[in-house]
Design brief:
The chain is built from 16 helices and eleven strands. It has 337 residues and is an alpha+beta fold.
Length: 337
């Protein structure tokens, strides 16, 4: 039996869109880059602090020989309008079901299929592992780095979630794919905050996707660039020509049936925690909790610059959270100026 071909076939049967294989070699090409980011205070609070764990698969799984990298498309189309006025935009990465659960489920099904044929040891991750998953995806031929530092696949574009399995199996590696961006720089020109400072050079602390998740105070000049985005940002991906021709996803779990891609701002301010969990608990963007989303909603209201919203913000000045009161005060001043 050709184990690699068997795994590829089974990956398709369990609903995995893209699969690639790479070895357990160190990702030392990234080490200088990671140190530079740390020295320039561009490391976020969401990253593994031990850089060895970020570049050495065997520091995570000593018996690692091969890594199976999977990609699942979330490039779903949805254009249904919402019936509320005060709305905050959610990025596609948080539409529908939490992708951590969806991708993890597909990986576990693939593991079950492999175990039917061969006994092996493994450990798997979906966005929570210490290794640089995009570099693993590049090495495994899942896609290539775009100038916006996203992994782009020829068929599915960049709206893909990545997961990986460290294994003690011997599987032939796939070849990396060189970037196909050419002279295109649409993503760099479109980035609202200038987080894409140069081709393949990204400042995460200026990225709107990061800003909507951090608990740190957001600088005034960056708040104004966030528009009505309350979780994530798709701008650099939307303008990418590769996504214009990408296949649509067949993964219906990512269709935003409950939210339609927006948060009802008035509703979230009147929700109890249990009501919030019931409506938003299954989406990826809920992991930071209700208060961070409320803060982002206030920024969105400030950016709307509609005097009719001041009354709503004045109520927020009485919120139990000092953070909410602080941002409400900023939003009121922004609308009045």
């Amino acid at each position: 039996m050709n184990l690699k071909q068997y795994i590829i076939q089974k990956s398709q049967e369990v609903g995995i869109d893209i699969i690639g294989f790479t070895d357990s070699g160190r990702l030392d090409d990234l080490k200088d880059y990671l140190y530079e980011r740390r020295e320039n205070n561009r490391e976020t609070e969401f990253e593994e602090k031990d850089l060895e764990k970020r570049v050495d698969p065997k520091s995570i799984f000593p018996h690692c020989k091969s890594i199976i990298v999977v990609g699942i498309s979330y490039n779903v189309d949805f254009n249904e309008k919402v019936d509320f006025e005060l709305k905050g935009k959610i990025s596609k990465s948080s539409w529908g079901e939490d992708y951590h659960r969806v991708v993890k489920d597909r990986i576990e099904k693939l593991i079950d299929e492999i175990e039917k044929e061969i006994e092996f040891n493994y450990i798997s991750f979906v966005d929570t592992g210490p290794l640089v998953d995009r570099e693993l995806a590049r090495k495994a031929g899942v896609g290539w780095y775009g100038k916006n530092c996203s992994i782009i696949n020829d068929k599915y574009g960049s709206f893909i979630f990545i997961g990986y399995i460290l294994t003690d199996l011997d599987i032939e590696s796939d070849n990396p794919i060189l970037s196909q961006c050419g002279d295109c720089n649409l993503c760099l020109r479109a980035c609202p905050t200038g987080a894409l400072e140069a081709p393949y050079k990204f400042n995460p602390k200026k990225c709107i996707s990061y800003l909507t998740q951090t608990k740190d105070e957001i600088p005034y000049e960056l708040r104004e660039k966030m528009g009505i985005k309350v979780y994530g940002c798709d701008t650099c991906q939307i303008v990418c020509p590769k996504n214009k021709s990408a296949l649509n996803s067949k993964n219906n779990e990512f269709v935003p049936v409950n939210t339609k891609g927006y948060i009802d701002i008035e509703e979230i301010f009147n929700m109890s925690n249990s009501e919030f969990k019931k409506k938003y608990g299954s989406m990826a963007g809920s992991w930071r909790g209700k208060n961070i989303l409320k803060r982002n909603c206030i920024i969105a209201i400030g950016n709307m610059k509609d005097v009719n919203n001041i009354e709503f913000l004045e109520k927020a000045l009485k919120d139990p959270s000092p953070m909410i009161r602080q941002y409400a005060n900023w939003a009121i001043k922004k609308i009045k100026t």
